[in-house]
Amino acid sequence: MNRFDFSTAPYNALTPKQRNTLQAATDIVFFDDNATIITAQDSIEALYIVIKGMVKEIDANQEVLALYHPSDSFDTRALFEQSYRHSFVAVEQSLLYAIPKAIIRQLIEENSDFGAYFFANIADKLKNQADGRREHELAGLFTAKVRDAYRPYDKLHSGTINLIEAAKIMQHNKSKSLLIEHEGKIGLVTESLFRDVFIKNADTLNPFDAVHLWAKFDLISVDIQDFMFTALLKMMHHRIQRVVITKQAKPVGVLEQVDILAFLSNHSHLIAEKLEVATSLDELAEVALQMNHTIWALHSGGMQAKQLSQLMQVLNGRLFEKAWQMIAPDTIVQNSCLLVMGSEGRGEQVLKTDQDNALIVKDSIDIASVRPYADKLSATLERFGYPPCMGKIMVNNPAWCQSVSQFEQTISHWCNNPSPDNLMNLAIFMDARAISGDETLLDRLRGYLYQHLDGDVGMLMNFARAINQFDEDGRGFFMQILGQKKHKMDIKKMGTFPVVHGVRALSLQAKISEINTFERIARLAQLGLIEKQLSQDVSEALAYLMNTRLKNGLTALKHNQELTPNQIATEHLSTLERDLLKDALQVVKRFKNHVSSHFNLQYT
């Protein structure tokens, strides 16, 4: 029986000969409760891997920096240095593998895949993790059913309708095909058929001809319960672009090649199409209720939080826009600007969150006439599943539904009176994105803000200082875990907020127009305000934290639990997830130090 577990990365990359070399050189060592394994500044002799028990890493101030569980290794950073930076102590009786440093160095030189693990920064590690998901994404083609992607039809149309009527029905339904029935047979009319018929019969074509004269009746069908792969094979075999979908031998819709391709990349086209054809708030409500199912399906197919959040930003934006256009008269819609803010505005929110929105109205419009419609919009979004904002940052709050001149006065007040609430309002407004109406109103307010803050170093320092708002939550966090069998980490306070707000502060100073945090990071790196490697690490760390948060939220929804995506139960994370979480939080700490240094926060 092998003593060493080669099932985890990077040891699973070793060849059989290399595995034998490592196993022959590896010792198993035992440490009692509170026994010191490594003392800071000790010379580096071995790499340790936890078999059983728990080990804590502590700094010179006795603060616990990390906890290591079975399959975790430490201290890989020390393999390329002369001594250990920190001390490592057994929390409880622990068994460890001890691999001689010389053996690890030898294997690194022999095996590039093995070596890459130790040299990789967090950006590389997370990229490799994402690459490993591609195979899983392709599996969706073999497991997804036709029912997940086909385009349903409400009814079969008579083959006696003329070509003009058929075209009008397709235009009204915003579809590229039409199913008809004539003399007991099912026929199909498509956009390409209209094109070909017109080109070939331009001289003799009568637009009032019955559509059955031109329809195709030799159709290939697939049952609604068949696998999507079966449908694709039939399309390829018959060299066709679409198949008719049947349920209990009766036609119920059509599946096109483009539907399959869209399904593999995302399921969003189904929601997007339903959004476009919706003509009432009731229909929009039905679409909104399907959002979580779409997110679950896409995430199961391999799409990560960063991409999902950008997709949901588009879908949510269109949903809010259509709702507002159905609620308010055109004169109000055209003379105002509806905003979404916070994570929704940045495009970094996947699951439905509290409403964060506002309405800017032109000075020529009586604001009192607007407020009843703003109230109805807030109520409608709550009906759609977007709960009210605890801080009342919604259009039904007069403070967030104002004329453009009133908003300018509000911005002046925020800047001139930098209380915690005013600074938070300013931060929320900075992430505003226009989704309906006159976008120049938002542009005017942004310009006013930048002009107002020009050269105001003190205000910018006060704004940036919020990155340290939750330091007490993070300080001694691992020590808190030791005192409890179960402990949840607030991943927003410890991870995402310091990154998002630090980037926001640098962006405000630089007056850049980007809203999304990833785009802001890239722009700041271009301007030299963040070093390139740090910018890459921060982006990947944020993406990982967002994905961890999303997985936690989806798990809660699956088990009908209270949705608290920020509260991460660390004991449920895998070894790799814990390793990446530690790396991500170290990157957050580096970035906070960078922002603090940039704004001289350590001296204030």
UniProtKB/TrEMBL annotation:
GO cellular component, one term: membrane
CDD domains: CAP_ED (cd00038), NT_GlnE_GlnD_like (cd05401)
One Pfam family it belongs to: cNMP_binding
Domain Cyclic nucleotide-binding: 10-125
PANTHER family: MAGNESIUM TRANSPORTER MGTE
Name recorded for this polypeptide: Predicted signal-transduction protein containing cAMP-binding and CBS domains
PROSITE patterns registered for this protein in UniProt: CNMP_BINDING_3
Gene Ontology molecular function, alphabetical: [protein-PII] uridylyltransferase activity; magnesium ion transmembrane transporter activity
